[in-house]
Amino acid sequence: GCDSSLNLTSQKATDAVDSIFQSLRDIARVRMNMKQFNSIHNPGSNTHQASGSFFFPASYKPLLKQVVEEICNPDRLDPVDIEHMSSGLTDLLKTGFSMFMKVNRPHPGDHPLLIIFMVGGVSVSEVKMVKDLVATRKPGTQVMVLSSALLTPHSAVELLFAPDRLQPDTDI
């Protein structure tokens, strides 16, 4: 709401900052119901041992990295926040019988082809990270990363703070 720095007032700046923090709270609220993937922030810790103290600083762990690590985890249990969707009659019958018998649901890492579709966009560095993680943790698995957009740093910030970020782009 400000076309130049000459027209910037304290109230306009406060409104803009409030809007930014509201957007960040909205994004955090989306993941609130998740059990496993509800945070990208690791607060770190201070660890004291007899020989001295260790400080582990806070760190950032991208959501996409967490999901791919869970899919490629060799000691995997049933994923908590990743759900298998039945696709055919055989799968539906297996899912129906699983109520009466011990039938394990398929795990996303069981298939030799992993397809990841990122709604909203993916950056080149995220695609490389997925490729490297799958190559080291699940060799022999082919991975395809698809997305609604290829993000640059500028476009990511622009999408994050756009007033209508959930509306599709109609300038096609």
UniProtKB/TrEMBL annotation:
> What are the record keywords, sorted?
Protein transport, Transport
Keyword Transport applies: yes
> Which organism is the protein's source?
Tachuris rubrigastra
What is this protein's record name?
SCFD2 protein
Family matches, as PANTHER family:
VESICLE PROTEIN SORTING-ASSOCIATED
Q: What protein family does this chain belong to? A: Belongs to the STXBP/unc-18/SEC1 family.
* InterPro entries for this protein: Sec1-like, Sec1-like_dom2, Sec1-like_sf
Gene symbol here is Scfd2_1
Q: What does the record list as GO biological process?
A: protein transport; vesicle-mediated transport
One Pfam family name is: Sec1
Q: Which domain of life is it from?
A: Eukaryota
